[in-house]
Amino acid sequence: MKAIRGVLLTCDSAVKQILLSLNEKENFIIEDLDDYHVVIKADEEYRVRRELEAELEKNTYSLE
Question: What SS3 class is residue 6?
Answer without folding.
Answer: strand
